[in-house]
């Protein structure tokens, strides 16, 4: 199943086209709307004031409520654009944003309004596509769940099971430890008050994938497939599986996951490897943590270059921007993970 995301932040609409969707899937649009509501802004001071309905329109690929096997096209209309906010930075790219790279890539023809195709707004159709994958995965007994693992150095508790992690999905601020969650929210509000932003991380668990998926080869290994999908999410700068960078602090006797038999199945006593050995699933939950950078659009003065004159200048960004994207990114990371998991099942 392949997907192509289209549209721009301030265009008339954004959306996604999926090819290879199996015929006969009873598409649950209510679930899709619930997932989109989880990533939506405009509800508190923790996120952008931009408020979109994010109602999904099915243009093709569904008849009588079921997928037909032909390309599935999902569209989400834009309605709350303030395009004038971006005129002042048309030729002065925001530091660490996709503005400059996109300007060069498009030979100056980039839609600069709201970041255009580089905007986090484009994660809405990604969530819609991921919901399709999640419904297909559920038929195979596979679940995808995530939580905010850290914001600005404040860490959440670690999940003990997939069921525990699934329980945070309905929370407005998806953490396991609500007290830590309040500390994270205060850090976001403090950054916003100072015209700044903060970053953090999302931990995700994919449970139910059978052993033997993937391959050690380039392009087919499990970590590579997941990473390719995850790095397509704006703001993602690092992905680590299992113990991740903590492996550098371990000996082999600490890092290795002993094999055991549980209910007649081979499992591992620990899961430092994150469910992957040799680029192949080993039957344990695939676990990884995704790090997201602070939002580049901040109100503090920043140095940049005027692309018309080639001279250095300074900008102060106005408009509606997220002081932190981590809490809104949780369903986005789940969506990307679901698409990756379904791709692995189809190999």
The helix/strand class is alpha+beta
CATH class: Alpha Beta
User: Judging by the overall fold, what is the CATH architecture?
Assistant: 4-Layer Sandwich
Enumerate the spans where pLDDT stays under 50 for 5 or more consecutive residues. none
Helical segment count: 8
Estimate the global geometry from the Cα principal axes.
globular
Q: What's the SSE pattern?
A: EEHEEEEHHEEHHEHEHEEEEEEEH
**Could you state the oligomeric state of the chains shown?**
single chain
Residues in β-strands, percent: 15-25%
Description:
The chain is of the alpha+beta class and 347 residues long. The chain has helices at 29-39, 99-105, 123-139, 162-166, 178-193, 222-230, 252-255, 326-345, and strands at residues 2-7, 13-19, 56-60, 62-63, 66-67, 72-77, 143-151, 154-155, 200-207, 236-241, 259-262, 265-268, 276-277, 280-281, 286-292, 302-306, 311-315. It has a single domain (2-345), classed as Chorismate synthase AroC (Chorismate synthase, AroC fold, 4-Layer Sandwich), CATH 3.60.150. Strand 16 and strand 17 form a beta hairpin. Helix 3 (123-139) crosses helix 8 (326-345) and helix 6 packs across helix 8. The radius of gyration is 21 Å and the shape is globular. The mean pLDDT is 92.
Protein traits:
alpha+beta, 4-stranded antiparallel beta sheet, 17 strands, 347 residues, Chorismate synthase, AroC fold, single chain, 26% helix, 5-stranded antiparallel beta sheet, 8 helices
